[in-house]
Amino acid sequence: MGINLGQAVKDFILKGPVPVAVSSAPTHSPVPSAWTSFESGHAPFLRVFSIDQQRKEEETKVAENQEEEEEEACSTRSPAPFCCSAAPTSARKHTETRDDRVKSKRTSKRGRGEEEDEMGEQNGGTNGSTNHVLLMEKPEKLEPRVFKKRWLILAIFMFLSGSNGAQWIQYSIIANIISDYYGVSFQAVDWTSMIYMLTYIFFFIPAAWLLDKWGLRLSVLLGALGNCVGAWIKLMSTHPDSFWVTFLGQTIVGASQMFTLGIPPRLAAVWFGPDEVSRACALGVFGNQLGIAVGFVLPPMIVSNGTVDHITYDLNTLFLGSAVLNTVILALVVCFFTARPSVPPSLAQLTAQEEKTFDNNFWATLRNLMTSRDFVILFITYGINTGVFYAISTLLSQMVLSVYPTETVAVGQVGLVIVVAGMAGSVAGGFLLDKFKKFKLTTILIYLFSFIGMLSFTLTIDLDSMTLVFINAALLGFFMTGYLPIGFEFAAEITYPAAEGTTSGLLNASAQIFGIALTWLMGIVMHSFGTLTSNIIMSSCLVLGTFLTCFISEDLKRQKAHSVQSQIPTSETQLTSCTLTQNEHF
User: Fold this and answer.
1) Cβ neighbours for 539, distance < 8 A, ≥ 6 positions apart
2) Distance CA 258, CA 199 (A)
3) Mean pLDDT of successive 10-residue stretches along the chain, which has 586 residues
């Protein structure tokens, strides 16, 4: 048999290097499993058999009694489809009484017609006088399964997301050096951070569609490729006249973020079980925050103020290390990152996959989300909280140096404290959600403490004590950054079975919109009225976000889907039948 090279390449790009196993049918039954592989995402299959309706008149009372005895005998044997062409009247009557218990998926008229014609010929078809018994095999108790490889998949993604996050802040954290070296304004340096947000706003919808349509691997692959290309371009921008070259590389890296920023909730749902999904999502966000922490601390350590030649050498070192690292990460994605496991980790994920099979309208999903009252409120509140975090991260150097002008290295350390504390907050938040399932309460408390942390940071930054700055930075980071995965998971719960990539994409778009607006406005306010005024405004924004969060209803749809799993019967595979006339639709 010839090999279809094009199909092989497509499968490698979309699914990964390792073929996904497909579970075989049970050996005790000649009927294939009712659940096709998770890889294809199809619903239970339906088999249609033809019965000659004229045999109704030929059935006798003796035959009916015989059939009752046969039914009792069949109930003690291994389940298998009975021969419908020989089924007597009593069987059909028994079948008709169970019509209301049959739940079947609609098939196309053409496919059904072809199947009916074929079966009709095999049974001596009688055209319009033919009745059809629809047999649908119910599955044995579904046994979700998790694989050890899920941790490798998560680790690769964390490295990728971290490498992207590290490049986000690497210019802004040494804004004074970059501004002097390239001869540009502080606003231009701020745009090396804000370009991440701007590109996401314009391209997140195509990226969300791509994730929904083609799955995890292609999105992650494109994100890794963009990171790698952008990092190598920046390596060619270490001349003082090359700011626009470095900005081009940063734009490519920033655009790559749209393929990875919404991945954590989708990856967690596809690879992890119901008791791990919140923690897995938190770890996915943790990777990005770890990268931001590196972006805060490494540039001030590597690039120091000095002569032009000295700064050029330092920038070469910084950019070369980033380029090599991103090349290695790209290789890991190509070789080891696969789209999804062969068996779903939870019943909710299988159900969502079936829903997607029969209702794969991305734009309808988008419209439904943006007309959902609860999601719209979460869309706004998530944007406020994360936008404030983005503004603080971008303007941190200017905030601290305006009060402590000699603490250039300490600025990076303050940023590191914010992010490391935030990573602890992310993991703690994920643990609390997995343990107690109190999504709304957790969200409100995290939001409230974010405000308290911001207020404390605002009131102590001018007290001439770096110790207080570090303490309040830790408090601020723990709650504000810890909110990120909680928002993702809350959205996944109230919008299930909508694709997690779509909901997280919309939340991230809100974050970028608020991030650009707050970073730009607070930069102007800070230079015009001082750091205190800008921080008070951001604290007020967090109060508003806390208030709005109280109006989100806690309808945890995904948790309800998880609970259905325990209600699936454990009995052997059953066959359910119903009678349909030839002219009836599925």
Assistant:
1) 451, 454, 455, 458
2) 8
3) 65 63 40 38 36 50 63 52 44 46 44 46 43 44 73 93 91 89 90 90 85 86 95 93 94 92 85 82 83 88 88 94 95 89 67 50 82 93 93 86 80 86 82 81 91 89 85 90 84 83 86 92 89 92 94 82 57 37 36
For 76, which DSSP code?
Answer: T
CA dist 149 and 142 (Å) reads 21
By the 10 Å C-beta count (0-12 exposed, 13-18 middle, 19+ buried), 12 is classed as: middle
Q: What is the C-alpha radius of gyration for the chain, rounded to an integer number of angstroms?
A: 30
Based on the fold, state whether residues 138 and 164 are members of the same structural domain: no
Give residue 319's identity as a one-letter amino acid code.
F
Q: Do 109 and 236 belong together in one domain?
A: no
Tokens at residue 333, please?
A: 């994605």
Under a CB-based contact definition with an 8 Å cutoff, are residues 501 and 270 in contact? no
The CA distances from residue 418 to 350, 427, 575, in Å, are 38, 15, 58
Determine, yes or no, domain membership for 461. yes
Is residue 528 one of the residues assigned to a domain? yes
H or E element that contains 229: helix 216-235
Query: Cα dihedral sign for 252, 284, 485, 144?
Result: positive
Residues 6 or more apart in contact with residue 548 via CB below 8 angstroms:
377, 380, 381
> Does any domain span residue 518?
yes
Report the length, in residues, of the chain: 586
Residues 115 and 263 placed together within one structural domain of the fold? no
Number of Cα atoms under 13 Å in the Cβ half of residue 499: 29
Residues 92 and 215 in one domain: no
Is 164 found in the same domain as 88? no
Look up the pTM and report it. 0.62
Same domain? For 46 and 184 the reply is: no
Q: How many domains does the chain have?
A: 2
**CB 132 within 8 Å of CB 579:** yes
Q: State how far the Cα of 133 lies from the Cα of 31, in Å rounded to an integer.
A: 16
Is residue 232 in a domain? Answer: yes
**Cβ neighbours of residue 291 under 8 Å, at least 6 residues apart?**
161, 162, 163, 164, 165, 166, 167, 168
Distance CA 14, CA 115 (A): 32
Containing domain of residue 239, as a range? 149-564
Q: Are residues 381 and 451 in the same domain?
A: yes
Picking from 62, 125, 123, 52, the residue whose alpha carbon sits closest to that of residue 92 is 52
Q: What confidence score (pLDDT) does residue 580 get?
A: 35
Q: Show the tokens assigned to 539.
A: 């604290």
The three-state DSSP-derived secondary structure of 457-479 is HHHHCCCCCHHHHHHHHHHHHHH
Per-residue model confidence (pLDDT) at position 109: 43
What is the secondary structure of 174-190 as a DSSP string?
GHHHHHHHHT--HHHHH
What torsion do the CA atoms of 341, 343, 347, 349 make, to the nearest 10 degrees? Answer: 30
Name 352's Cβ contacts closer than 8 Å, sequence gap at least 6.
269, 496, 497, 499, 561
Domain check: are 285 and 331 in the same one? yes
C-alpha span between 498 and 240 (Å, rounded): 48
